Amino acid sequence: MSSIIARRRHPAAGYAAVAGGLVAVGVLYSTLSGGGASAAAPAQASTQIAQGKSLFVQSCSSCHGLDAQGTSQAPSLVGAGAAAVYFQMSTGRMPAKELGAENDRKPTEFTEQQIYAIAAYIASLGGGPAIPTAAQVSTEGANTALGEELFSTNCAQCHGFAGAGGALTYGKNAPNLNASTPTQIYTAMLTGPEAMPVFGDGTITPQEKRDIIAFITDTRNEPNPGGLSLARTGTVTEGLLIWLGGLGFLILIAMWLTARRRDHAMSERGEAEHASAEGIEVEKTEAEHTEQRS
Amino acid sequence: MSDEAVKIPKALDGLGGWFDDRFHGARGVRVLMRKVFPDHWTFMLGEIALWSFVILLLTGTYLAFFFVPSTQEVVYHGSYTKLNGIQMSQAYASTLNISFDIRGGLLIRQIHHWAADLFMVAIFAHMLRVFFTGAYRKPREVNWLIGITLLLLGMIEGLFGYSLPDDQLSGAGLRIFQGVLQGIPIVGTYLAFFLFGGEFPGNSIVPRMYIIHVFLIPGLILALITAHLFIMFWQKHTQMPVLGNTERNVVGQPFWPYFVLKGQAWFFFIFGSLAVLATFAQINPVWLYGPYTPLAISSASQPDWYMGILEGALRIMPSWEINFLGHTLTLSVLIPFAVPLGIIFTGAALWPFFEQWATGDRSEHHINDRPRNAPVRTGTGVAAVCFYGILWAEGANDVLADNFQVPLYTITWIARIAVIVVPIGAYFVTKRICLGLQRHDTSLLTHGVEIGIIKQLPDGGYVEEERPLTPEERGKIDSKKVPLALPARGHPDDNGVPAPSSRGVMGWARGVANRAFTETVAVPDGHGNGHGHPDGHEAIEGPEHAGVGAGEPGESGEHGGEEQ
Amino acid sequence: MSEIEEPAGPRRVIGTPSPAPVAVDTAEKPAEPPLVTDPPNKAHASRAERLVAALFVLAFLAGCGFIAAYIGLEVGSSNIPAGASAVDAAFRSNLALGLALSVILLAIGTGSLIWVRHLTPNIEIEEERHELKSSPKDRAAFKAEFADGAAISQFTKRPLLRRTLLLATVPLALAPLVLLRDLGPLPGTSLRYTVWRKGLRAVTLGGLNPLRPGDFQPGSMITMIPQGYQDDANALAKAGVILIKFEPGQLNFPDRYSGSTLIASMNWSIDNSLVAYSKICTHVGCPVALYEQTTHHILCPCHQSTFDATNGAWVIFGPAARPLPQLPLMVDSDGYLAAASDFPQPVGPSFWERG
After folding, report:
1. C261 strand-pairing partners
2. Residue C84 CB neighbour total at 10 angstroms
3. Rounded CA gap, A56 and A94, in Å?
4. Hey, is the C-beta of C184 within 8 angstroms of any chain B C-beta?
């Protein structure tokens, strides 16, 4: 403590105090705000569906209607299926932050068990695609070459060749795929969330979906042998780097190379000796030159 | 100071004699050794291009030992196991081979590609330096044209180079190239079919691009670079407008040993920067793009940076097509293909001659201009840079949209308006800034430099002390040369004959241009005679400098025009 | 006309060299040995020399490292242990070789830079510029000799010679162009047609699965190709299609004609809800694949041409000038989707003869 007080007039003291204050506030906030309110467990959750229904009524019905029939603010979920619920809720997109805008991935407020419960409830209302089992999303023995073909034909135009994401119209974008679990990828293909088209099992078979998942996970886990990935967006970042990094660095070197030279100072005595010796020489030389010139 | 002369070793002496016996070189090489190269960091930009080209040749030769320029399909079973079983061209497979199975292959590949990008960057930077300092003026117009040709050749070389691996990204670029060719009126489909050997993609394009890329264009570039350097050598380099530099001398350090040592340092730095980039920054990761198939495409598909202006032009264009008499003129494609680059290349090529025409200045120039002293030139250059830059940025519009959360169409609309408005505005703003800087220079001449000491006068007012300019500072400011005003329209000579150059529409246009070029801030008397020779020498221009159609030499001396 | 200028004091813009205290003669005069060959400050120079030498030694060591890395770090799955990742191996090798090479080059570069800046005397010389224009005497002599030679050659005096020479060389000059004719076939009508024909089944790209209308759900999109043509890139580059399935009632557009040719019709869809459009953008031919389920827009990622899928792929933004051609669909006897005919209009980018 006394060492801190002793340094109170240090030039960096002010900055340290502000930084310390920010850290303290941040820690306090994250402790107090917690990991997000988890819905209070209902008194009797005798069946998964019942639990799901009560969670639904609590968290979702204000927009989706008490019977998930939809309102002006949100569509009906009858027939949407458990898979859609799983995708939207496990990626945190639902409950939505704001209406109308595209929903981005955010930390989820629900546990896996709660999501399954709500999914079961929605499935009970009108069927729809089911949540895939672990075996269904396993990439064991998957054909990544076929996955590459399918991904580049059906997915890369939005999500980018390496799953780095991309722009859509009117401010929407297709997200990057770095954080998506295999189940999330599978359910996204199956249900076509938001602007994404539906890739049902009829058009992309379950095995093909596994191949795509294997391709995505392999690609995102793969190191970049050439160095930094530059965001895997292609030539735009490369161009920025060559101008700012390449030319910028070389201009600095060119300035160094051609800068005015300082004839470095010697000791006083040495300088005086040097000057007197040089001075005479220089004058003589110039005189000689002038002579030769005329 | 010990100034011992170096004793030449006997072997070297003998070798030198052997060559001299056969080539009569002593005097010529002596001239070369004493040749003076003026020193300024901006003069080194062209050398970046030169050394990058050398590095491209070296690394390209290495790559050519391993690359297979064939679209023959193979089923891949190699080191990049993620793609095992996929059908791909041999070109793509050999590129994967270079990247993953040849030690140093990936490094050399990346150096090659970074060097290509740097080559183009350096050409642009060098071109801009030459433009903004007026170093393209007589006697260097031919060198300027050679440079523009090199720029064009570099773009095509790069386009074909990155298309050789036949990956998804460059294949999409080739498809765009083919679609653009196809749209050219009358001959388009023939051009496309002849280049591709039939329909797209065909099997001919990769081997054909290969021979153009490794033989034809490098040969042309090498020849033009040699001519470019030889002309620069023969005419001697320009110099900066600094005290001691005149139109009749070249001041600097001798070629031997200074330029040799500096050139050596510069080469290693350029090569070193490329090596650093190739080590730490991945470029063109073709294994991530996948082999080219005609029905796949990625978001954020952009060509290499120097083709970005074409890409942006294609994106900015609204839809426009004319159908008549069974023919289709697809302006959505033809205008972006021809107009922006057409304006820039034609404008750049004609500029030295336009400037000569507008100013009537046919004298030699070996001293560079300070950009502020040529407001029209600098303004036009900045406008051109803005035009280029807006189209270039539009080429990356989906990346910008994604990263900066701006809607996609909004970016395009902003670009559509900006591409017209911003260059025009930039021209005027830049011109005013230049004239303002000239005004500042004039005030330095009349008042001196403020030295930061504030004095209080007896009557209570404050004034900042000034010191007079040093000869250097004065020399720099005095170097300003103002183009002579041509005789105005409607001002006939003594015999009542109007100046022939001022007649007609062209004459009117010339007058307008001339007035713009001669707009300047008047220099106070006694400083700078408009010909910028602080050592008091006579201008070498003499009668050549007078405007065409001028009468007596005295009449044409309207330099130092009106201050706006 | 050369002179020696006495350069003044050291106030200069960065990047320009300072004037030296010694002015040296120009190249025209007989050779004189330079007056100064050593840098002015011996102690500083030997410090600089040590630094430069150290840098060069560092370059040497890095060079040895380069060779060691080359020998020691293998790449390629046939050279690395089984199960190891070739990508990891490539990364390690690239990093090691690249780092070594960077050090070699930058060390030599820095060493050379310090050498020239600190180990050489600060000499500046001045050279005279020659008049570039030749003297009038030389010009006149040139003109005279050229004229003499031309007269001797008889070229100017014998117009028949001149003209027949020109005549002889014209076909020779055209010959290279003529030889280029066989670079490729004539386009003919090949751009007008694709391989699609009545009854040709559509299969998914990659999986090569034929599909039934029931395999689609509202909001689906999938890329399909003609069956049997998966290895024919030329065919695929024109024949690829995207199939989009809508909710009932969403797909709604009137019949469209180009001249008297019907080019888009709801009758070509299946159940007024499953439609096939060409995947080749009508702008410059990129695959137009970006389908937004919520807006029903098909966006081409190359230049953002946007088509309304519910409205016969009508262009609503971007440079494309024509809607995506629609492929007439039918269901074949086995219930699979097939083409009912070829496209009614040419697919892909516009061309002069298109009509």
Report:
1. C258
2. 12
3. 11
4. yes
